[in-house]
Request: fold
Amino acid sequence: MAHSPVPHFTSLANALVSLFGNSAAVAHTDRVSGGDINKSYALTLTTGERIFMKANAKENVSFFTAEAVGLSAIAQTGTIGTPYVLCTGTDDGEIVGYSFLLLKYIDGEKKRSDYFETLARELVAMHDADTTPFTVGGKFGFLEDNFIGQRPQVNSSEVEWISFFRQHRLLPQFKAADRYFSDSDRNRNTKLLDNLEKFLVEPEKPSILHGDLWNGNIIPNRDGKAILIDPAVYVGHREADLAMTELFGGFPKEFYSAYREAHPLQEGYEERRDIYNLYHLLNHLNMFGTTYLEPVKSIVAEYVG
Reply:
């Protein structure tokens, strides 16, 4: 099971005492930059430990319980580094309530010389890992729904990858973005959805995916190796992870060379890449607005005219 035995607490104080002992409390708080969905802090405790806390509104605690399950699923493969999850919780707060996720603090050092090559090989190992613990009733999906950014991501199981990608990735995003499209746009969108089998292929085997794999979601650890953060985990086609690495700036060429050397891609990946990234561009359209409309329309036109 991907569900981890991560404890959940109803106050930060109780969490710290339970995890670190009766004398544990926050001695110092430093705000950490990065991310526009959650607030992040480095907490120095009275016991000397330093931990990482993500916080959000109390009603958004599911952001963190879902993230904990995703991180635990990746860790369960034993293939690639992720932050160690300490707990999730909520706190009524002195002024306003909040939810939180506590992780062991990552003291990131400079990247080792083979940072991206090692990341590629470990990512291949993750993509090749057994996925049967992470789906029920089908080969694709996940044990529970989660989030892509701040928007819900449905992970209902499907036997076929193309059906999963149509029903639980593209279709919900197109529906949410309907107000941005003209009638002719909608016709093209429907044509793409109806003809996905012409453009996508079923994978050689299902893969556990990070789900939101861009440069901002990998960081170096103390050993200078890459670890994965902020996942949107599900079981799918490994091409979807690879495609996203190319969407926002891309990774260095040595990453792609090392990945293909360790596990060559199915023929025609480059022709499928933009459809996978259409999901993320639609999600950005739904989160941030019309800046992403033209890229979305351009990709749809690329496949259906």
